[in-house]
Amino acid sequence: MQKHMTFLVLVYALLAALACLQFGRGSTVEDYRNTSCIESEKLALLHLKHGLVDDFNYLSSWDGDDCCAWHGVGCNNGTGHVTRLDLRNGMLRADHIYHSLLDLKYLTYLDLSNNNFEKLKIPQFFGSFKDLTYLNLSYTNFEGLVPHHLGNLSKLRHLDLGLNYYSNPNAFDLSNLYNSLLSIDSMWWLSKLSSLVHLDLSYVNLSKATDWFSSINMLPHSIVVLNLLSCQLSNNIPRHLPFVNLTSLISLNLEENSLNSSFPLWVLNNSGLAHLSLRLNRFHGSIPDSLGTLTSLVEIDLSYNSFNGLINPESIGRLVSLSSLDLSSNEFQGHLPKSMRRLSSLTYLGLMDNNFQGSIPHSISNLTELTYLYMSSNELRGDLPEEVCQLSKLKSLDVSFNQMSGRIPDCIGQLSNLISLGLYDNSWEGFVTAHHFVNLTKLIDLSISSYSNLALDVSINWVPPFQLQFIYIESLKVGPKFPRWLLTQRQFLDFRMINTSISDTIPTDWFSNLLSHAYLVYLSDNDINVEQLSSISAVPNGLQTLALSNTRLFGGFPLFLCNITSLRTLVLSNNYFTGELPQCLANLTQLQDLDVMNNNFSGTIHASLGSLRHLEYLNFHDNNFQGKLPLSFQNLTELVILDVGKNNLSDVLPSWTVEQLLGLRILILRSNKFYGKIPTNLCHHPAIQVLNFAHNQIVGNIPPCFGNFSTMITVNKSDDFHPDFPWRWAYSKMIIDDAKGHELNYTSGLEFLHSIDLSNNNIDGEIPEELMDLRGLTSLKLAGNHLAGRIPERIGNLERLEFLDLSGNKLFGHIPQSLSNLDFLSHLNLSFNNLSGRLPTGNHIQTLYDPSINDGNNQLCGQPILEPCVGDTGSPDVPYYDEGNSDLDEEHVWFYAGIGPGLLVGFLGFCACLHYIKSWRYSYFHLIDRVFDKIVVAFALWKRKFQN
């Protein structure tokens, strides 16, 4: 925020200077008050007022004879013509803007910014103000196409159409968070604005303007400010240009687009460039060393791209005017350049979410102006140097999510301006004491955790000097007693104390007060006295997230929770709650996440839960619920994850999950008493990626149409972006999957899990050939059924498969050789079938050496079961290669045959270099002489010592 404020201040200063140059003396309303305005122009202004809705009496002065004295109106001192109309910040509304405004023929300045002209288009007649030099329509809510007629404004120096958008609170990713109201289909008309100095098109949709870059490059040499923030630009921009018009830029903003190229070298032609932002794009490659030639740079923001490589120390060290440098969320690596010590004007340094290594250099103490230092999510090691404590102006310090170790220096407590301190997720050791906080009177945000042995060591009567609003402490020993100093903190908004070894009674008043003020509370993985929950009667609305998992709570469901209607996330998993879930849960109409996994809840699942229409995550796994799955669940149209596994539900498999729950991705019904056939309409579900019906009473065949699961057909790579998976979830969702006989908890990466588990049912028939089209499938478990037939030959097509369990069926025939193509396979079980023939060999499958994976198939032979096949010779310990592996044998022959000639060619090449390159020859034989001399001397000394 600080760096953007600096940018705005400088831009506004520039605009003010331009305005002064343009209008000179007499540009303010007061200077014109002695000049009577032209009657026709006065009527035009009154006509404009008539079409405006003035809710705040902004135009209350528009009723006298002299319109030059009206608020926002400026006239020429000699002629009386209206030349300036400044209605910014008026919060005016309009149904129509009348053409009578054209009577202001001498208008040079028009500012309508920060008003609300919703559903109106920019009038085409605005292009008729021939003398206009300044036009600002930002924050006006104009919509539709920007008229090309604006290209007629040949004297225009300042054009601002930016920040006309509406927010989309239901967006699944940041790129859709704001939607443009204005759009431009072609930008050819821009090149006609030959006097343009300032152009701001932020949030104008330019996705259809394929000529945007060529048109921008045709802008006049004089342009100094170019702002194309969030314009939905996606086509590549060239790195080099045959000619460059843009050589006078002072400020260039291309952030929040989808530009995909290496660093644009034409930017380096602007030697006076002070502000550069390429944030939130897809730029890649290394940063050119010549960036160091832009010595006027004050702000650089390259964050949220894919830049990589090392930072050139000399290049970065030349940018001595920098006040803000943000390289966050890229792929930079290497050590932090020590040359950064030259950047003595730096106030903001953002290096988080990269691959920087090594330690924080001690020379960081030279950055005496530094106010914000962000180094989280890297690979930094070593201590936090005490030199950091010399940065007395620091307001925010974050080194979280690194590999730092050692003791936290207690001189941190001397940073009296510190507001936010992030020490989370490192390997700190020792103690955190009162000295670490002694002068941190402004601290409101504290996060700290450690993989090692770290404890908070303060006296029982310690009173912190701060009032925290945000606290995130995990795996730091704070208990076993409840820390009394928390009673002094009365302003918590975000409270997270997880796995802090607290095993005590929590004061009822304090906990009730916490729930009353905070919007997020985590107390998971602690031992809390349940009596304090049961005694709370009412909590004011405001709390949005409450997570009390694994806190050893017991008893009935805390009824006071039903009154917190603002709740969006409620997590009570891994406790000892009993009884039924109350029907009053239906009061929580804003609830998005409900997790009561691994408790002892019983009874039926109330149909009233179907009224929670915003639910996205519902986890009832491992309880004692009985009865049927409520039909009302088909009303949960926003549901993404439904897990009712390991209960006593008895019902026919639901078919309504397809027709109503179109966003459902994970459906887990395992370990219940569901029965019947698998509904074929399930095949048409557009989003399903995890389907677990294991350990039920399902009969019939596996529908061949399972091969239609679209999310499992596509191979998702780990670096792919998944816009359909909700990014706004408040906490890590957990699902449980069974693999290798053990339950695995998945709390992250759910978007990459694609699984089908139908094991331990009464399913018969064959394995459908269509399943082999699911190339993105990561887990397929069909064990413990009555499947017959052969394993499909195309099983090698499941290239992402990690788990395959076909055990305990009636499969026969040979095991397909294509199984060896599954490079990601880590668990395979084909035991207790009727398989026969040679085991497949080669590639990754030979690493799966556990013989038990083939138990119960007595007609199998070959490695690794040590049962030789007919025709095998030699020791059974020696792998036998059949014709299918002839290519492998041939590779070995050619490999060994090539060793001799390769060594000979290498030796002759070395000799040739010695013969033809004199410097090599001298150096080589000089080295031989030195080595020989050392050997002779060493031998002589050894011989003399032996003789003595």
TrEMBL record:
Alphabetically list the UniProt keywords: Cell membrane, Glycoprotein, Leucine-rich repeat, Membrane, Repeat, Signal, Transmembrane, Transmembrane helix
BP terms from Gene Ontology: defense response; response to other organism
The leader peptide range reads 1-26
Enumerate the subcellular locations listed in this protein's record, separating them with semicolons.
Answer: Cell membrane
Q: List the SMART domains hit by this protein, alphabetically.
A: LRR_SD22, LRR_TYP
Give the UniProt entry's GO cellular component terms.
Answer: plasma membrane
InterPro entries xrefs: Leu-rich_rpt (IPR001611), Leu-rich_rpt_typical-subtyp (IPR003591), LRR_dom_sf (IPR032675), LRR_N_plant-typ (IPR013210), LRR_R13L4/SHOC2-like (IPR055414), RLP23-like (IPR046956)
Bilayer-crossing regions: 893-917
UniProt main location, coarse: membrane
Task: Quote the Pfam families the UniProt record gives.
Answer: LRR_1, LRR_14, LRR_8, LRRNT_2
How does it sit in the bilayer?
Single-pass type I membrane protein
**Which intervals hold domain Leucine-rich repeat-containing N-terminal plant-type?**
39-76
Superkingdom to which the source organism belongs: Eukaryota
Q: Does the keyword Cell membrane apply?
A: yes
Which part of the chain is the Disease resistance R13L4/SHOC-2-like LRR domain?
301-486
- Give the family per the record: Belongs to the RLP family.
Protein's name according to its UniProt entry: Leucine-rich repeat-containing N-terminal plant-type domain-containing protein
